[in-house]
Amino acid sequence: MVKSSFIDDLLYAPSYGWKDKNAALVVPTTKQLWSEAFSRMNIFKARSNWISFASFLMLAGMLPFFFLFLFKYFSWYLVIAIVVYSMLIMGTHGTIWFHRYCTHKSYGFSHPLWRIITQNLVIRTIPEEIYVVSHHVHHCKSDEPGDPYNAQAGFWYCMLAEYNHQRVSPDLSEDAYKKAVHFMKHTGVKLNSYQQYQKWGSIASPMYTIGVWLLNWSFWYLVFYFIGGTGLACALFTAAMLWFALIRAFNYTGHGGGKEKHRDGIDFDRSNLSINQTRPGLIAGEWHNNHHLFPGSARAGFLPGQLDLAWVYIYALRKVGMVSWYKDSKKEFLKKYISKGQVSDLMPLTGDNYNMGHLDYEGL
Ligand SMILES: [Zn+2]
Ligand SMILES: [Zn+2]
């Protein structure tokens, strides 16, 4: 694991703290978690709460579509559209964009246009920095105190992590801020200067974040409206809302709900609680145990039957030249873990430790 005070102090520590004086994980009550979340969304308390407030507004802005769908445009055909859009399309896009590109830089685009199209391929939800910065911490401190979605602290600890544990600390030094910016530079998101960060408490510029959000929603509303009328538009915004609200559960289940659930021959990384689950794997390419072994790989489905739709997208874009390079660790995985053919050989193997290379410190 990376020992670095930069990583230790990168995220905005919750008021209940990450660990107690014996260095054990603090497990807050559900009430504590909700009150922390509400205080972090409170824009009247601090301007720097804007990013959590915007996230709340986003969910609230999707609710009217949900009610319109439910009470005015409901049909079973649209229910199928919701299931496909939320689980398959939003899910796979999350892997392609937030996870494999923005966070792990596992592939590159040949032109910024392809990057912008990929970013906006679905209805926009979470701002990139909320995912990216905290996800590096998740890899550095998987299942340890300080892991922003430590499943051992319970379901709501993960569900409310976006507000309570995933925001960048408002107290970074200029030097630390520069390092944090380094995680985001390639994403195309307009970033704050240190002075602007001190004012807004975020890496992303609020104007950019709100502007992209409004443009993206207007574009997709019109597209869906022309394809299938108001009914389809309401249904797919409902789908986006469901994904946005429920995806947080993956951070809990993807690490076994805080319990050791590894299966021999399937989960080869025993250094943390991550597991390969069939559903997130098949629908979104999130073979999470494989991913913890090779975080920098643009592909995570390594074994037969581990369909990886996010990889299909990246590979297809490489074929047509929109993606200029990618890293594929399948061969390395097979050589290291499968060719031995002995499950007993694999215990207690640890993963490819999340190191300075993964954090991409070059040039700092
Ligand atoms: Zn994980
Ligand atoms: Zn990851």
Name the overall outline.
globular
How widely separated are the two ends? 20 Å
Low-confidence stretches: 342-351
Number of strands: 2
What structural category arises from helix and sheet content? mainly alpha
Query: What Rg, in angstroms, do the CA atoms define?
Result: 20 Å
- In terms of DSSP E residues, the strand content is under 5%
* Residues in helices, as a percent range: 40-55%
Strands of the widest sheet, in order across it, are 1-2
Small molecules bound in the structure, each named once: zinc ion
The major pleated sheet works out as: 2 strands, antiparallel
Along the chain, the helix and strand elements come as HHHHEHHHHHHHHHHHEHH
Summarize model confidence as the mean pLDDT: 92
The number of domains: 1
Q: How many alpha or pi helices?
A: 17
Characterization of the model:
This protein is mainly alpha-helical and 364 residues long. The protein has 17 helices and two strands. The radius of gyration is 20 Å and the shape is globular. The structure holds zinc ion (2 copies). One zinc ion (ZN) binds next to α14.
